[in-house]
Design a protein that fits this description.
Layout: E1 7-16, E2 19-28, E3 31-37, E4 40-47, H1 52-62, E5 72-79, E6 84-90, H2 92-103, H3 119-122, E7 136-137, H4 138-151, H5 153-158, E8 162-168, E9 172-179, H6 182-195, E10 204-207, H7 213-222, E11 226-229, H8 235-244, E12 247-253, E13 256-261, E14 266-267
Parallel strand pairs: 3-6, 7-14, 10-11, 11-12
Antiparallel strand pairs: 1-2, 3-4, 5-6, 8-9, 8-10, 12-13
Helix pairs in contact: 1-6, 6-7, 7-8
């Protein structure tokens, strides 16, 4: 836990039904969260100040800094008045690899992806999940999104954060993480799944955001073969998911959805409750 709160009260002037009145509402906090490795600053994210250990593991994994949680020797959360510094110590081999990666940086760039030093890395090849035999029914797809909506406590309070969940057949949602940033929410989820020792191939990732290529990349790195979203994918996300052998399900609205890649994992059926 940190001393930073996840929400705040904001004054507002509301116009509703032709009437204007002054009130207040709960809004999410947004805090600078820095990631430092071996004492050296690496990236700063604007995010929700909770589940930071999960965030550290997930960010380190999806950015290619580590390949397993065991490559982190410690995570320390250091706070000041301005923000939070997540100080990560790596085991020797991972620390050496990160130092070598930094030496090869050509200079500051603006790819828009944290921890990425080149265009080639931004469109990097992702792990192949085509061999993973996980399948879901129509009812499970619809049910997974419904369960995620119900489990988003912070969003219910603020209506302003993204959610990411991990859906497992016969178990439902086994983990949910939220953040003002969609990438952050997914990184936190990846960290939570890895820290729990649960293989990514055992479940589907469900998110409340649009599907950009980074969401596909992070899901593939986790090892999940199915990515489900309530919004639409980008063209690059579709191409990347297709190449990775991932099933991309989007625009889940009520009982309807669209499958963009590898539809063989989704079986039709009658809608039923998913526990």
């Amino acid at each position: 836990m940190t001393h930073f709160k996840t929400t705040a009260h904001a004054a507002e002037t509301v116009r509703r039904n032709g009437l204007v009145h002054v009130g207040s509402r709960i809004v999410p906090e947004e805090v600078p969260i820095a990631f430092s490795y071996g004492g050296s600053a690496h990236a700063v994210m604007m995010g929700t100040p909770d589940d930071l250990e999960d965030f550290a593991v997930g960010f380190s994994l999806t950015e290619g800094i580590i390949s397993a949680a065991q490559e982190l020797s410690s995570v320390e959360i250091v706070e000041d008045d301005q923000g939070i510094d997540v100080q990560v110590m790596l085991v020797d081999d991972a620390a050496d690899a990160l130092r070598l990666r930094r030496r090869h940086m050509a200079g500051p760039v603006g790819c828009g992806l944290c921890g990425i030093e080149s265009i080639e890395q931004a469109v990097r090849k992702v792990p192949d999940v085509s061999h993973v035999a996980l399948g879901l029914s129509h009812a499970e797809i619809v049910g997974a999104v419904g369960l995620l909506n119900e489990a988003q406590l912070l969003h219910r309070e603020t209506r302003a954060v993204h959610g990411a969940g991990f859906f497992v057949k016969d178990a439902g949602l086994v983990a949910v993480r939220e953040d003002v940033g969609r990438h952050n929410a997914l990184d936190k989820l990846c960290g939570a799944i890895v820290r729990a020792g649960r293989p990514g191939a055992t479940g589907a990732v469900v998110v409340t955001s649009r599907l950009s290529v980074e969401m596909v990349q992070k899901t593939a790195i986790l090892g999940s073969p199915i990515l489900i979203a309530i919004s639409a994918p980008t063209a690059l996300a579709i191409r990347t998911a297709d190449e990775a052998g991932m099933t991309l399900v989007a625009l889940v609205r009520g009982d309807d959805f669209e499958i963009f890649t590898h539809p063989h994992r989704i079986s039709p059926g009658t809608i039923a409750d998913v526990a």
